[in-house]
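Work Package 3 (structural annotation) set out to generate three-dimensional models for the target panel prioritized at the project kickoff. During this period the team completed the workflow that converts sequence records into discrete structure tokens, so that structures can be stored uniformly alongside our sequence database. As a representative example, we reproduce one entry of 200 residues exactly as it appears in the project archive.
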Amino acid sequence: MLIDELNHRVKNTLTTVQSVVSQGLRSSSNPAEIREAIESRLFALSRSHDLLTRENWESAGLLDIVNAALEPFGVANGRSERFEVKGTNIRFPPKAALALGIAFHELATNAVKYGAFSGETGCVRVGWTVEPSPEGNRLILRWSEEGGPPVTLPSKKGFGSRVIERGLEHELEGITCLDYRPAGLICTLNIPAPQAAGDG
């Protein structure tokens, strides 16, 4: 049973790695850019794996997932005071936790390159609530940037936005909206809340 579970996890991880490498190779023809794109995403995946390992691969809290994904962007670059994260530590199963960890990494990377963290004064606010709906409880998560340079709609979708939109919609059966407002990017995620989330 243990070997079957390990085999399942390894296959899932290798599928994710294959996707990261494939998208990285398509995103640029510059070897240095390809290497950076692949390495940074593998490190993000590794941080999510570390978090799940500490939790015996049962589940991971959303607050912990966000903090693990954003830590390298805050601690290493003195931006920790420019993050505001609010929400309860709702538990997500491993597959969803991995998808969320990579998505937060992509959003933070985008903020550093083009958004709130590309200057000295921008900040990022992340928050979520659980709301009832006829189909069951929904978790509404919002990533909001402000104080960065004026934002414009990208001429084409990059790897990051594809990961956020397609990956989260597929893995979490949710709806993702990337709103490129001049004052800052707002990403809204609307997904089915994990079973225990409506109990508290």
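The CA atoms of residues 142 and 188 lie 5 Å apart.
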